[in-house]
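Bumping my old thread because nobody answered last time. Still need a sequence for this structure:
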């Protein structure tokens, strides 16, 4: 099921529930009821709880957005380090250079075409990707430089392999969901409390009040969906992408 379809259904369901409760509650209100009699303390508490929940939602959205940005930067660093390995191998003999570049492209191709899907589905890196990176490491470290010129390029190449490994490990650590379960519990309970408190204000069944109640519940549902979608940096609709790999290794698009 499409994530946007899930969002649409969630917002429609939230709006329908709130409007249904409003209509049912309106039928139970006696005709002589005066909505202006809502105690000031209830209005004050409703406002304060709404403000507090808005702050919590803002912090949650900022947190998952920052995690997504960090995840995308990790992918960029990994792809850039791979590109540096391929470029700096130019000083090596043709046979060694070709082997290193072939291993680099094999690893990058696996990340883009296979590991990315595996990572989004399982939240883990693939064993094959680990093996391919180890093959790149062996291709770089097992070669003995034949002269000083090649020797000067050897250590930077080894450092770039370490940078790829470090970025890959960071990508693996961020592959799953970043929000703890207790935070989700607080967000959902807070949403129910915040939406529920609007019924303490004696909402009438007028078009304006029903519209505002529906839009408020839709907004809460949308913001929760946004947090959920950003919560898995590599696994959902607005997640980090493998674009840095395809930008630096154009042949992967084919």
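Sorry it took so long. Here it is:
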């Amino acid at each position: 099921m499409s994530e946007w379809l899930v969002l649409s259904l969630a917002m429609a369901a939230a709006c329908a529930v709130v409007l249904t409760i409003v209509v049912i509650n309106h039928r139970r209100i006696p005709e002589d009821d005066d909505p202006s009699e809502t105690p000031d303390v209830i209005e004050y508490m409703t406002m304060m709880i709404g403000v507090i929940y808005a702050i919590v939602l803002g912090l949650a959205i900022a947190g998952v957005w920052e995690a997504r940005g960090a995840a995308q930067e990790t992918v960029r660093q990994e792809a850039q380090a791979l590109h540096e390995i391929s470029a700096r191998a130019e000083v090596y003999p043709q046979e060694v250079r070709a082997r290193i570049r072939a291993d680099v492209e094999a690893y990058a191709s696996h990340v883009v075409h296979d590991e990315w899907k595996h990572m989004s589905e399982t939240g883990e890196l693939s064993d094959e990707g680990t093996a391919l990176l180890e093959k790149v490491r062996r291709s770089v470290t097992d070669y003995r430089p034949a002269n000083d010129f090649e020797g000067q390029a050897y250590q930077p190449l080894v450092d770039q392999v370490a940078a790829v490994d470090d970025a890959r490990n960071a990508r693996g650590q961020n592959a799953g969901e970043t929000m703890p379960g207790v935070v989700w519990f607080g967000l959902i309970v807070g949403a129910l409390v915040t939406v529920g408190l609007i019924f303490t204000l004696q909402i009438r069944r007028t078009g304006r009040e029903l519209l505002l109640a529906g839009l408020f519940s839709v907004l809460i549902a949308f913001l929760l969906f946004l947090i959920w979608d950003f919560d898995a940096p590599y696994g959902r609709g607005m997640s980090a992408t493998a674009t840095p790999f395809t930008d630096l290794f154009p042949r992967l698009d084919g």
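The chain has a mean pLDDT of 81. Let me know if any region looks off to you.
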